């Protein structure tokens, strides 16, 4: 009926479009954070993975002898444990940022802002708080990863693999981690834009609800 059509109209608004973009950015942050974490086990885990992992690294590190293989396994596990808390924190933030716009889309579809216009000011405040908090969160994420890559564990691991001719174990940020940082900055800008749209919609709703009183 007409109520359902009015609810669907919200999905065509600028605020809803921004919320959809925020959800997509959050989903990408979640994926990139999980890639950054990698898999536990390293040396011993690759044969079990098979496929591209097995062949990309030359038959699961066939160039290692027993002692070097055990050392590689230890370094992989220690390196994984160093990155794990950072990746988990980033994934938790990404999960929250994914749920948040979904909730706001549901609130908009149910026309809560129309019945309770002050909600738009609350929404604006939440967006500003999240946008401001996202910037230091991105800095902390990248700074913490750089600390891990500058650790002795990572340096020794890199040298061990390079001595066997294996590539891809450098102690530097990789593409997924850089992408997560850039996506976080993009999300912060989207939140600022959504905050502005929430204020604009609050004014619009307030004016519309005042019209019957003026008559």
From TrEMBL:
Membrane topology, as annotated, equals:
Multi-pass membrane protein
Q: Tell where it localizes.
A: Membrane
Q: Which InterPro entries match?
A: Marvel, MARVEL_domain_protein_3
**Domain (MARVEL) ranges:** 10-203
Q: What keywords does the record list, in alphabetical order?
A: Membrane, Transmembrane, Transmembrane helix
The answer, when asked if Transmembrane is one of the entry's keywords, is: yes
Q: Where are the transmembrane segments?
A: 20-43, 86-107, 119-142, 178-199
GO cellular component term of the entry, any: membrane
Which PANTHER family does this entry report, sorted A to Z?
Answer: GEO08273P1-RELATED
- The protein here is known as MALD3 protein
The top of its lineage is: Eukaryota, Metazoa, Chordata, Craniata, Vertebrata
């Amino acid at each position: 009926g007409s109520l359902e059509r009015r609810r669907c109209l919200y999905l065509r608004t600028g605020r809803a479009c921004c919320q959809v973009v925020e959800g997509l950015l959050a989903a990408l942050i979640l994926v990139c954070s999980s890639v950054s974490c990698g898999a536990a086990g390293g040396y011993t885990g690759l044969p079990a993975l098979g496929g591209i992992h097995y062949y990309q690294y030359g038959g699961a590190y066939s160039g290692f002898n027993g002692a070097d293989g055990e050392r590689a396994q230890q370094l992989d596990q220690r390196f994984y444990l160093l990155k794990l808390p950072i990746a988990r924190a980033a994934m938790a933030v990404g999960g929250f940022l994914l749920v948040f716009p979904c909730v706001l889309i549901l609130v908009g579809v149910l026309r809560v802002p129309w019945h309770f216009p002050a909600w738009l000011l609350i929404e604006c405040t939440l967006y500003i708080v999240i946008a401001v908090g996202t910037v230091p969160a991105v800095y902390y994420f990248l700074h913490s990863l750089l600390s891990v890559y500058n650790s002795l564990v990572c340096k020794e691991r890199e040298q061990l693999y390079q001595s066997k001719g294996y590539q891809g174990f450098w102690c530097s940020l990789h593409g997924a981690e850089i992408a997560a940082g850039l996506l976080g900055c993009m999300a912060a800008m989207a939140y600022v834009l959504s905050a502005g749209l929430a204020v604009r919609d609050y004014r619009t709703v307030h004016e519309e609800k005042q019209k019957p009183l003026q008559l």
